[in-house]
Amino acid sequence: MSEQKRVAIPLSDAEKKNPISKYYSTELAPLNQDLMKCILAGPMDPKNAIYPEDVKELLKPGYVEGETGYCVMDNGAGYVAVNNKFPGVTLEMMKWWFAWHPLESLRYKIWDPYCHPYAAIADVDRAKIKDPNVALEDKISDVVHFVVEDVGAGMQDVVIHFLTPEEIGFTKEELAEAKAYAIGGYALVENREGEKGKSPVIMLHYYRETPDGIESRTRFWMGYRIVKGQPMCILPPGMKIPADFALGLALHNVEEYSNLASLLPKLYAEYGDQPF
């Protein structure tokens, strides 16, 4: 992840006048070096990958083998696992972030000013998020994000369908007992340049309380989508996601979440009690 040739996404004149712009900085928070070392050591053993139908494994206390890493799974799918730490952050703060940030591209830019140029949602979803009578958790699920993002392979158009925790594979009771919450869904990704075609991905952020905050046990399954409510690898026989694609996504996840970990406590303290 070279910093030499990277150019930050500029702010528009209107964005510069927005009070939130004070959180825009081209100097990202330091990357979690333990995670970087683990990822850059090379692919993990595919036998330690969790399949999307087995997400309840994350409910167990402790950690799994392969808590952070990437690989190509036996069925050809790309797999990413990253355990990011968020000291001073609560589950409520993270729920708030996922409801708050898609309302303006500027909010998405401050998350990663090098890789997040654009975010949008439909008017119906905007009205839902802004409705004070809608519970915070309901402002996250059943919402579609339209973003432009560079996850290590150039800018891509990404359409993310956020699902309820139950649709991802967890009951509310299970998550409450584990002092955790799950945010995720499925996405379609298409390159802005080069080879065209939409690639499916299932995404899961399993947030769990820790003694000093929360941790995000993130998982991506590249080549998977939800079909009739069930996760399914839809790669043609013999096709494999290139390992470098999974590597790029893993590195980007460390970057964006290292930066968010430094931003979120300050953002929530200023905006968390304000109307959306």
Structure report:
The protein has helices at 13-17, 33-40, 91-100, 105-111, 123-130, 165-168, 172-177, 243-271, and strands at residues 69-72, 78-87, 118-120, 143-150, 155-163, 180-191, 199-210, 213-222, 224-227, 230-233. The protein is 28% helix and 28% strand. It is an alpha+beta fold. The model has no long low-confidence stretch (mean pLDDT 95). The chain is globular.
Summarize the structure.
By secondary structure, the protein is of the alpha+beta class. It is built from eight helices and ten strands. Helix 2 (33-40) packs antiparallel against helix 8.
Gross morphology is globular
| Percentage of β-strand residues | 25-35%
The total count of helices amounts to 8
Oligomeric state, counting identical vs distinct chains: single chain
Average pLDDT taken over every residue: 95
Distance between the termini: 34 Å
Uncertain ranges: none
Across the major sheet, the strand order is 1-2-8-7-6-5-4-3
Largest sheet: 8 strands, antiparallel
Rg from alpha-carbon coordinates:
18 Å
* Tally of DSSP β-strands: 10
Secondary-structure-based class equals alpha+beta
Please give the share of residues in helix.
25-40%
Spell the H/E element sequence.
HHEEHHEHEEHHEEEEEH
